[in-house]
Design goal:
The structure is a single chain. The chain is built from seven helices and seven strands. It is α/β, with parallel strands linked by helices. It has a single domain, classed as Rossmann fold. Strands 3-2-1-4-5-7-6 form a seven-stranded mixed sheet, with helices on both faces. Bound molecules: S-adenosylmethionine. The site of S-adenosylmethionine has 22 residues, from helix 1.
Length: 213
């Protein structure tokens, strides 16, 4: 693992896990909800969630895929996964599996392909974000859906707020470079995928993109 990736891991193995849900739900839950509503996730879907963290997205995903569906959540922080496990136990969700792994290298043993691949607030803090992105896409069926939500650099008039939004993201591993990488991810999605939809929020510093493989 690179020095930069180790630094990110250290952040999420530290105090952040215990103080994560409140500020992040407060800032992003309405945009994330909208993304899942906009998605074509359906009852019975099998969904791969990269950088699942404390499992903040699970309840919205489950509303779409139901008890018949399945979530496989991947994250490299044991502390974040501990919180996700607590949520799973509290809600008695029995169709979620968690794996501690680096999403840039994660391999599923059975080579199963998923109906959808999701990553929220992940790629913008991963130094090798392209490896993580291509890995996610490779594990989704042809015709399946990719759902990405993340911080990004805003442009035009909104660019003046970039220093502020990057400052807010810093304690979660955010950076100018990471926010810039999101623009590259979107451009790759536009080139490689189909039916690409993008929406922007929060001074254009948060976006979601939904597309078909
Ligand atoms: C900002 S949190 C996002 C969590 C969740 N998706 C959400 O929106 O609340 C970023 C998560 O990505 C994880 N992460 C960062 N780099 C990773 C990597 N290379 N492999 C696996 N997990 C990673 C961190 O451990 C952390 O849980």
């Amino acid at each position: 693992m690179s020095f930069k990736a180790k630094k990110i891991k250290k952040i999420y193995e530290g105090k952040v896990a215990g103080r994560y849900d409140l500020p992040i739900s407060h800032m992003f839950s309405k945009y994330k909800k909208q993304a899942f509503r906009d998605s074509s996730l359906k009852i019975g879907d099998k969904v791969l969630v990269f950088c699942c963290g404390t499992g903040l997205d699970f309840s919205e995903i489950l509303k779409k895929i139901g008890k018949e569906g399945k979530i496989l959540g991947i994250d490299f922080s044991r502390e974040m996964l501990k919180k996700a496990k607590e949520k799973i136990e509290k809600h008695r969700w029995n169709n979620i599996e968690l794996i501690e792994a680096d999403v840039t290298m994660f391999k599923n043993d059975n080579n199963e392909l998923f109906d959808a691949g999701i990553c929220t607030l992940g790629f913008s803090i991963i130094p090798d974000y392209k490896a993580a992105y291509y890995n996610l896409v490779s594990k989704v069926k042809d015709g399946g859906e990719i759902i990405i939500g993340d911080m990004q650099l805003a442009s035009d008039w909104y660019a003046r707020f970039n220093p502020f939004t990057i400052f807010l993201a810093k304690r979660f591993g955010g950076s100018f470079e990471g926010h810039q990488n999101s623009l590259e991810i979107y451009s790759i999605m536009r080139n490689d995928l189909k039916e690409v939809k993008k929406k922007e929020f929060f001074l254009k510093s948060y976006y979601y993109c939904i597309a078909k493989k």
